[in-house]
């Protein structure tokens, strides 16, 4: 199965809907969002826009699924923020930032919105649901 990739760029929060509208003109089968603070802040609006177009999407942010998006897979931000707080604590108590080890996220979460899947007529395999950290019904 061949996959055709189309990239839509945006500049600023106002440009997100314009980028989505441009993507919709090419009639995508799905939309993949990359991580960005603007995408995160607009996750619910993006989910609503995709739902209105009946286009499944995946985002790295939990808020996307909570707002009606189909799937999310990404870093568990509360866990990552706790690690950041520990780093800050160490630095404020005299550790040199350059002496602290570089850490990568270790906690990721996979969410599935079954309500959205049903509304779009998408059947999610049981094996996928079993792997999900959370299923929204």
What does this structure look like?
By secondary structure, this protein is of the alpha/beta class. It has 7 helices and 5 strands; from the N terminus they run αβααβαβαβααβ. It has helices spanning 15-25, 37-41, 43-53, 62-66, 77-92, 114-120, 126-131, and strands spanning 31-32, 57-59, 71-75, 108-113, 134-136. The chain has a 5-stranded mixed beta sheet with strand order 1-2-3-4-5. Strand 2, helix 4 (62-66) and strand 3 form a beta-alpha-beta unit. The radius of gyration is 18 Å and the shape is globular. The model has no long low-confidence stretch (mean pLDDT 91).
Order of helices and strands: HEHHEHEHEHHE
| Biggest pleated-sheet summary | 5 strands, mixed
Average pLDDT across residues?
Answer: 91
Helix tally equals 7
Strand numbers in spatial order across the main sheet: 1-2-3-4-5
- The radius of gyration is 18 Å
The shape is globular
What is the end-to-end distance?
31 Å
Classification by helices and strands: alpha/beta
| Uncertain runs | none
**Beta-strand segment tally:** 5
Strand fraction equals 5-15%
Quick structural gist:
It is built from 7 helices and 5 strands. It has helices spanning 15-25, 37-41, 43-53, 62-66, 77-92, 114-120, 126-131, and strands at residues 31-32, 57-59, 71-75, 108-113, 134-136.
